[in-house]
Amino acid sequence: MAGSGVFAEIKDGDGVFRYYSDGEWKASASGKSVPIINPTTRNTHFKVQACTQEEVNKIVESARAAQKLWAKTPLWKRAELLHRAAAVLKEHKAPIAECLVKEIAKPAKDAVTEVVRSGDLISYCAEEGVRILGEGKFLVSDSFPGNERTKYCLTSKIPLGVVLAIPPFNYPVNLAVSKIAPALIAGNSIVLKPPTQGAVAALHMVHCFHLAGFPRGLISCVTGKGSEIGDFLTMHPGVSCISFTGGDTGIAISKKAGMIPLQMELGGKDACIILEDADLDLGAANVVKGGFSYSGQRCTAVKVVLVMESVADELVEKVNAKVRKLTVGAPEDDCDITPVVTESSANFIEGLVMDAKQKGATFCQEYRREGNLIWPLLLDHVRPDMRIAWEEPFGPVLPVIRINSVEEGIHHCNASNFGLQGCVFTRDINKAILISDAMETGTVQINSAPARGPDHFPFQGLKDSGIGSQGITNSINMMTKIKSTVINLPTPSYTMG
């Protein structure tokens, strides 16, 4: 059971999960806790500490002190500790996966996959960090006009300081380690503020870093109410960098954060363009996988299908046949479609569905909801005046817009405020490349659904979908700054030699 055995110390006597500061598991002086609701039962399943601003101050202070020593730790030693953390994480995948099932209704099999993938990410990051950070650059002054060879410039990458990591509910372990591992290998300290739903899985993951033997104060995990510590953390003068994955909150953070590097991955309305010459079986399989995996609660889920009118009937028929085979129910039973994360999410999704109904969309399945569980729904004949054509449902509801030209599809994709990913299905590689060039998104997948991984690929969004680029290599580079040391030589004397 989650919290037992090796994880016993992360809970207090009342069953409330502690926060992690200065190498210890602590109860907050506030005496308050934050409930975590199980999306399936809609009852409180876990409780975490409601930390105070004073506790945040102490965490940042110890993170700053620990970072100074960590920056002096040899690179190979940092990598060694990361490899150890990866092994511990994989060893304890079962209890962590169980938390994901209870907190965010992630199907059991996918929950285990998330933890294993996170371990792999940490190991790869250790190796890549040694490669990237082990290299410097050497410049000589006479390569620029008007200069003699009187200066040698040595550049290297040095850490930023304290990195604040804020992952989202849907991948609270994987998207936490995608920030933690690059920060640590680069010589930074880390303050993790996990999402409320997913906080207990994140606390278990942090305990794996604790068991691996990282120095005290280097890694902290603070839980609590966003209203109490959210702005306080993101505007804290001791924070040197913010890496955030989530929704609209990211835009507010970026406006308040000041002059520090930001890495933001926000929402998406990933468009799937299907041309007349596409392999429709492949297209349908990817529409279902892209639109309905983890009940559509992914930034990179297919959020709108833009299909050429001439093949639309056939595609919709093929998609519907696959939707009928999706299993709906509890995450413990490994169902394809599980409850969405909160009741407010379910209500928002329902609002989009009712708006589409009122405006004349064709329902390919009957709309059905029980609590937070929404049955998969394909909406055909969606028009641009419907909210679901533009808004991100983050649920198992997928709109189909029929188009009469490729240009119309590209126009709809580019009219969105979002620009995370998109995909195009065609057998004509030249067309695919031209469409990819025209789509205003961070990534375009050709003949496959959008996806974040593999985790070392660059991952970025345009417009309201984010700032900066992620992926292991890009994150390491982003969490460092360039330091130059210039050696000034005596003026050359041409009489020598």
TrEMBL record:
<dbReference type="Pfam" id="PF00171">
    <property type="entry name" value="Aldedh"/>
</dbReference>
<protein>
    <recommendedName>
        <fullName>NADP-dependent glyceraldehyde-3-phosphate dehydrogenase</fullName>
        <ecNumber>1.2.1.9</ecNumber>
    </recommendedName>
</protein>
<comment type="similarity">
    <text>Belongs to the aldehyde dehydrogenase family.</text>
</comment>
<dbReference type="InterPro" id="IPR015590">
    <property type="entry name" value="Aldehyde_DH_dom"/>
</dbReference>
<dbReference type="InterPro" id="IPR016161">
    <property type="entry name" value="Ald_DH/histidinol_DH"/>
</dbReference>
<dbReference type="InterPro" id="IPR051020">
    <property type="entry name" value="ALDH-related_metabolic_enz"/>
</dbReference>
<dbReference type="InterPro" id="IPR029510">
    <property type="entry name" value="Ald_DH_CS_GLU"/>
</dbReference>
<dbReference type="InterPro" id="IPR016163">
    <property type="entry name" value="Ald_DH_C"/>
</dbReference>
<feature type="active site">
    <location>
        <position position="265"/>
    </location>
</feature>
<dbReference type="InterPro" id="IPR016162">
    <property type="entry name" value="Ald_DH_N"/>
</dbReference>
<feature type="domain" description="Aldehyde dehydrogenase">
    <location>
        <begin position="25"/>
        <end position="484"/>
    </location>
</feature>
<keyword id="KW-0560">Oxidoreductase</keyword>
<dbReference type="InterPro" id="IPR016160">
    <property type="entry name" value="Ald_DH_CS_CYS"/>
</dbReference>
